[in-house]
């Protein structure tokens, strides 16, 4: 028997939890851990985070064999359709940039947001086997798909760079803003994801509402046209959409000379933070009896 | 370092039966409407049936203690483990856990069919809190244990279910926790897998880890745990040494009785107007028969169904009582594999002339026959017994019965011409258990359970053969010829 069993000699005991050198002490209370504890735990469970992100990426690119090709093809095909439409109709989209590049860059970020928010909102159901069996910071469940979806942006960079070379457009100094823009996109998607998953544990109506809003959002955001196309009377309302500032800042960070609408972006940053805070707050409210309700 | 590994203080968990509320469009609109009309928003929730799955459960588990948790379905066992593993929060109460806790509420949590074996090992081990470096160090052992090395980079969906199970368990076996919570993990998988689990648990136990173990296998609890908590409707009903709690639980659960008493009277002639057992229980000492000393009323099952009030027997003989005794002649309700157990039968002979022969039918938990014994003293059988009360005890030798529940049917027969005067099915039952670390049984040093109805310990004779093959075969032939 001792041959098949790992003895204490073969299994090392240098586990991570004991934070202060001593043994791990866990307190269980009705309310659940405070937010500070949760942040510390997110760091403590970083290995699980990486493993889960890797799982999501692997599933995405294995379930359909064309996984990575699909990630490139989807924005390219959409770009092709919109470019052809504009060419046939001669519509004025107020776009100064080469239209294909404008649409493609917009679609890359938009599709990331669409995927990330949708999968984050439905993540609780996907992870229900985990949530009801082991403890980990519950916030990981909506966070993981938001981060894992970034892979589609990384893949889309290849045709994007190729297009930029083709059109002779290079990034300027504002490329330093790109990480901030991407973190903002992650935060906004996570905010929407946590908010929707918090209210849709038992009722999937909110998930359908989100899918509907997101499909509408493509036309309400400057993905295939410039914000200048919107008539002045509606412009005030139009700019309430935080995606406006985000999309324009994304392009400004990529393309030298593309104007950055600074106030739109600041507004959009503030909104992203607010939506994230609201989403996390709502999520943590439902977190306490999450496993009970699954 | 504190010696207390788990300290639970008044843990309570409330659940609602019936339709669930929560935030929804309907609920939200409805709540808004009621709020506008000045009604309490909580009203429909209050109408739902609330119940306490756990009700003020307090206990302490010391480091190295091995605690089994028993109880009926819905008694709160799994809820308790879920609270302690932080999957759900308690409604009230608190708990402190000192040390690295791993809870195995199932084996292979988070396994994904599309990932390879290696990826699943990393994912599953990270779910249980291991870092990448820790898994790197263990992966060879894990793969070895599971025996899936050639398939390590194959997607798990191509594995047989047995391979998946082995891999999942291999990860669980290498988590190396200070405190291990196990919930019915051993009840999944085939027999050999269950055995492997048991062996690993035994390994952990002998290393002095703290174990909290929910199982319906009372044999496993009796074997691994030195303490047992019996949960009943969310409350702790009994907390104490594993053998004693398992016994008490068995008696309550399976209607297992270690002593039965029917008609008790002083004048056995007055067969028709026999006072029931209640007379004895009703503390009337003048009625108590001296021969039944030690039959404490509390230890006796007082079955109030009409059948049980009827005294088994006929005009020739009647059964008075049956109880189980230890070698010290004290009442017992369970016995270790290496102990002797006595079945004491008390019966009245009402008229002489017929040979009365008690017989015992031993049956297993699922009523399969183990064996039958009948009274075989030639002196007794030669002359019909005198009228009066007789007490006889049959001694079951140690190392005969396997672990588990054994039911005893008691009969009073006349062999020739054959007549059954009475036969009481499951008159008494008892549990055979095995003490942890007891290697001096038929099991020897094996960690596994032994199948079979009986488990005798045989005498083994070994001699070293010094002759050649020819001599050996010659000896065998000679043996056969004789």
Description:
- The complex is a heterodimer of chains A (294) and B (482).
- Chain A contains 14 helices and one strand; from the N terminus they run βαααααααααααααα.
- The longest helix of chain A has 26 residues, at 262-287.
- The two termini of chain A are 40 Å apart.
- Chain A has 294 residues and is mainly α.
- In chain A, α9 (178-199) packs antiparallel against α12.
- In chain B, the strands form four sheets. In chain B, strands 5-6-7-3-8-9 form a six-stranded mixed β-sheet, with helices on both faces. In chain B, strands 12-18-17-14-15 form a five-stranded mixed β-sheet. In chain B, strands 10-11-13-16 form a four-stranded antiparallel β-sheet, with no helix packed on it.
- In chain B, β17 and β18 (419-433) form a beta hairpin.
- In chain B, α4 (117-127) crosses α5, α4 packs across α6 (161-173) and α5 (132-146) crosses α6.
- At the A-B interface, β1, α2, α6 and α14 of A face α1, α3, β4, α4 and α5 of B.
Give a concise summary.
The complex is a heterodimer of chains A (294) and B (482). With 294 residues, chain A is mostly helical. Chain A is built from 14 helices and one strand, in the order E-H-H-H-H-H-H-H-H-H-H-H-H-H-H.
Topology:
The complex is a heterodimer of chains A (about 290) and B (about 475).
Chain A: E1 25-28, H1 35-44, H2 46-63, H3 67-89, H4 99-121, H5 123-126, H6 128-131, H7 140-148, H8 150-167, H9 178-199, H10 205-220, H11 232-238, H12 242-254, H13 262-287, H14 290-293
Helix pairs in contact in A: 2-7, 3-4, 3-8, 4-7, 4-8, 4-9, 4-10, 4-12, 7-9, 9-12, 9-13, 12-13
Chain B: E1 4-16, H1 25-36, H2 43-47, E2 50-62, E3 66-70, H3 77-84, E4 92-98, E5 101-104, H4 117-127, H5 132-146, H6 161-173, E6 179-183, H7 191-206, E7 210-214, H8 218-224, E8 227-232, E9 235-241, H9 242-253, E10 259-261, H10 277-281, H11 306-309, E11 317-325, E12 334-336, E13 341-349, E14 357-363, E15 369-374, H12 378-382, E16 388-396, E17 404-414, E18 419-433, H13 469-481
Parallel strand pairs in B: 3-7, 3-8, 5-6, 6-7, 12-18
Antiparallel strand pairs in B: 1-2, 1-4, 8-9, 10-11, 11-13, 13-16, 14-15, 14-17, 17-18
């Amino acid at each position: 028997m001792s041959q098949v069993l790992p003895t204490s000699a073969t299994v090392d005991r240098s586990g991570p939890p004991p934070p202060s050198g001593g043994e791990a002490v866990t307190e269980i209370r009705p309310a659940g851990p405070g937010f500070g504890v949760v942040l510390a735990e997110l760091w403590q469970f970083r290995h699980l985070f990486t493993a889960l992100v890797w799982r999501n990426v692997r599933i995405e690119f294995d379930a359909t064999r064309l996984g990575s090709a699909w990630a490139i093809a989807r924005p390219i095909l959409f770009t092709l359709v919109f470019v052809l439409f504009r060419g046939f109709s001669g519509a004025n989209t107020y776009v100064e940039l080469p239209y294909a590049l404008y649409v493609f860059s917009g679609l890359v970020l938009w599709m990331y947001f669409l995927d990330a928010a949708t999968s984050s909102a439905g993540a609780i159901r996907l992870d229900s086997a985990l949530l009801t069996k082991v403890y980990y910071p519950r916030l990981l469940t909506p966070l993981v798909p938001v981060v894992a979806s970034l892979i589609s942006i990384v893949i889309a960079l290849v045709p994007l760079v190729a297009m930029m070379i083709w059109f002779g457009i290079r990034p300027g100094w504002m490329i330093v803003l790109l990480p901030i823009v991407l973190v903002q996109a992650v935060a906004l998607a996570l905010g929407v994801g946590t908010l929707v998953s918090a209210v849709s544990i038992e009722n999937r109506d909110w998930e359908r509402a989100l899918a509907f809003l997101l499909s509408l959002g493509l036309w309400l955001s400057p993905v295939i046209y410039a914000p200048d196309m919107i008539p002045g009377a509606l412009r005030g309302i139009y700019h309430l959409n935080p995606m406006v500032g985000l999309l324009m800042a994304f392009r400004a960070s990529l393309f030298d000379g593309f104007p950055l609408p600074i106030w739109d972006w600041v507004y959009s940053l503030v909104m992203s933070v607010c939506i994230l805070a609201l989403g996390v707050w709502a999520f943590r409210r439902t977190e306490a009896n999450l496993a009970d309700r699954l | 370092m504190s010696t207390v590994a788990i300290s639970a203080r008044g843990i309570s968990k409330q659940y609602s039966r019936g339709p669930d509320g929560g935030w929804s469009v309907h609920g939200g609109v409805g709540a808004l409407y009621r709020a506008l009309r000045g009604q309490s928003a909580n009203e429909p929730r209050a109408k739902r049936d609330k119940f306490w799955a756990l009700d003020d459960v307090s206990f302490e588990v010391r480091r190295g203690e091995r605690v089994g948790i028993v109880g009926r379905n819905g008694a709160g066992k799994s809820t308790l483990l879920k609270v302690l593993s932080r999957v759900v929060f308690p409604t009230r109460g608190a708990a402190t856990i000192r040390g690295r806790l791993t809870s195995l509420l199932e084996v292979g949590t988070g396994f994904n069919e599309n990932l390879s074996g290696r990826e699943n090992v990393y994912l599953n081990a990270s779910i249980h809190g291991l870092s990448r470096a820790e898994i790197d160090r263990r992966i060879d052992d894990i793969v070895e244990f599971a025996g899936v090395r050639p398939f390590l980079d194959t997607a798990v969906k191509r594995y047989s279910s047995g391979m998946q199970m082995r891999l999942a368990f291999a990860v669980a076996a290498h988590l190396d926790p200070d405190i291990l919570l196990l919930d019915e993990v051993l009840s999944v998988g085939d027999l050999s897998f269950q055995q492997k689990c048991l062996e690993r648990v035994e390994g952990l136990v002998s290393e002095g880890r703290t174990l909290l173990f929910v199982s319906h296998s009372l044999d496993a609890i009796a074997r691994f745990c030195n303490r047992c908590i019996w949960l009943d409707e969310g409350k702790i009903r009994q907390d104490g040494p594993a053998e004693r709690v398992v016994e008490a639980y068995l008696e309550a659960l399976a209607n297992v009785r270690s002593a039965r008493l029917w008609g008790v009277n002083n004048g056995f002639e007055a067969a028709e107007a026999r006072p029931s057992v209640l007379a004895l229980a009703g503390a009337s000492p003048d009625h108590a028969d001296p021969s039944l000393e030690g039959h404490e009323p509390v230890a006796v099952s007082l079955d109030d169904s009409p059948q049980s009030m009827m005294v088994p027997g006929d005009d020739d003989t009647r059964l008075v009582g049956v109880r189980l005794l230890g070698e010290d002649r004290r009442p017992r309700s369970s016995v270790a594999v290496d102990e002797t157990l006595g079945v004491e039968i008390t019966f009245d002979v009402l008229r002489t002339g017929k040979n009365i022969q008690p017989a015992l039918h031993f049956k297993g938990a699922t009523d399969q026959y183990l064996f039958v014994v009948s009274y075989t003293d030639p002196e007794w059988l030669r002359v019909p017994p005198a009228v009066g009360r007789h007490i006889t005890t049959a001694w079951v030798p140690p190392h005969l019965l396997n672990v588990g529940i054994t039911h005893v049917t008691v009969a009073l027969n006349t062999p020739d011409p054959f007549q059954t005067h009475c036969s009481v099915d499951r008159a008494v039952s008892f549990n055979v258990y095995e003490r942890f670390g007891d290697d001096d049984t038929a099991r020897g040093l094996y960690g596994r359970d032994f199948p079979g109805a009986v488990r005798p310990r045989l005498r083994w004779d070994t001699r070293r053969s010094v002759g050649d093959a020819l001599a050996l075969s010659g000896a065998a032939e000679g043996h056969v010829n004789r």
